[in-house]
Amino acid sequence: MVSVELIDRRYDGGLRNFRASAANNNFSLQENSPEKGQILIVEDHEGSRRLFTDLLESCGFNIIQTGDPLHAFELLKDIVPDLIIMDIRLPHVSGLELTRWIKEDGQLRSIPIVAVTAFAMLGDRQRILDGGCDAYISKPLDISNFLQTVHQILGKTSGKAS
């Protein structure tokens, strides 16, 4: 089992490296801004959820987060985010099942969904994309790829990404 201290050191180092290279990757660090967009993170692992939140908030996005897919679906009755970051292996209901529910809802189906998952076997990417996700990112997370994907998806759907 990995200690909390080791996880925190990895996380802090990753965020420090992100901050040091943000300018090289054209990602601006700024205050949260409604113009950047609102992102719902559905991730049951607290460390991953914290990392995604910090990375996206540092780029100016407004973040709503939950570790429970059923709670996420309830939240979508009151909010319509510009993007959903979706883990696939979740408690109670899989991220693919939640994605199916979202895509079947007329008011929610246009929300792009980026799957961020440890499923990285041959065929997993295509299975996840066929399941309704608009993009696929495997863990461990490549921070530059993660942020580029978010910006690309938001740029295609809302024009809010820079």
Question: How are the SSEs ordered, and which strands pair?
Answer:
Elements (H helix, E strand, L loop, with lengths): L3 H18 L16 E5 L3 H13 L3 E5 L2 H7 L7 E4 L8 H10 L8 E5 L6 H7 L4 E4 L4 H15 L5
Average predicted confidence as pLDDT: 81
Shape: globular
What is the alpha-carbon Rg in Å?
15 Å
How many runs of DSSP E, i.e. beta strands?
A: 5
Major sheet, described briefly? 5 strands, parallel
Helical content band: 40-55%
Strand order of the largest sheet: 2-1-3-4-5
Distance between the termini: 40 Å
Low-pLDDT stretches: 1-34
Query: Structural class of the secondary elements?
Result: alpha/beta
The helix count comes to: 6
Order of helices and strands: HEHEHEHEHEH
- Proportion of residues in β-strands: 5-15%
Characterization of this structure:
Helices cover 43% and strands 14% of the residues. The relative contact order is 0.15. With 162 residues, it is an alpha/beta fold.
Report a brief summary of the structure:
This protein has 162 residues and is of the alpha/beta class. It contains six helices and five strands, in the order αβαβαβαβαβα.
Provide keyphrases for this structure.
single chain; 162 residues; alpha/beta; five-stranded parallel beta sheet; 5 strands
